[in-house]
Amino acid sequence: MRFVMLARNPNLYSHQRIVSAARERGHEIDVINTLHVHMNITSSRPTLRYGGRTLPIYDAVIPRIGASVTHYGLAVLRQFEMQGVFPLNESVAIGRARDKLRALQLLAREGIGLPVTAFAHGPKKAEDVLREVGGAPVVIKLVEGTQGIGVILAETDASALSIIEAFSAANIDIMVQEYIKEAHGSDIRALVVGGEVVAAMQRTGRAGDFRANLHRGGNAVAAELTEEERTTAIRAAEIMGLNVCGVDMLRSDRGPVVMEVNSSPGLRGIERATGVDVARLIIEFLEKNARPNQTKTRGVG
Description:
The chain is an alpha+beta fold.
């Protein structure tokens, strides 16, 4: 089969691993910079151009779209979908997951365990927002933050109010969540592929940092999930409509609570912590679910 990966940096560990896995299993794969793709939105003949040439019709597309280019990246992915190219994750599903507030709303509607979360706009609502989540300590998050950037722990009501008011004055939307102290600065990432949890790790933040992100200097070890945690991860992926994702959870006294569903999870940490060949499993999922693109036989492109 012939695959294409949308990725701005082909040298990242995750991207190299997926490319290697595809080629080892006998597939062709091209890696193209998402921002360098041009779209020709013509009736009945949607095409994409890259490097001065029209791209071929692929059998599957692997979107590794950075958060900073979500809007354009999803437009490019939709163009591939219009050509009948099978997406590892659909554009609509990625859009749901990238909108953190929307993602939490969807998960809440389906009864998934979540931290108590409040969202409001304007400094006059700061006290109400803080009261909604039970007061300090609270976690304050930028709606657009990634990899632990834009995540702040406010340990007192006074500091929380100051932070909320400062962001509001700058016209920046934020979420305020209860702090799950019993998690002790650790979280669980469950990697879901095709409706199954294929690997799981426990991430712990570096000393003095409550954020468990590996990009912030945390460390990871393989994790054994409870049945409730496994079910929660699978249901969260299903609700988002994602075939491949990382579901980040905290172990609270009331059971697992989902913090985020990541549509482009990194592979380095979880592969090294668990020894699971996640890249191979992703390619195997495409082999089972993608079909040779019938658009090719119609001469499109």
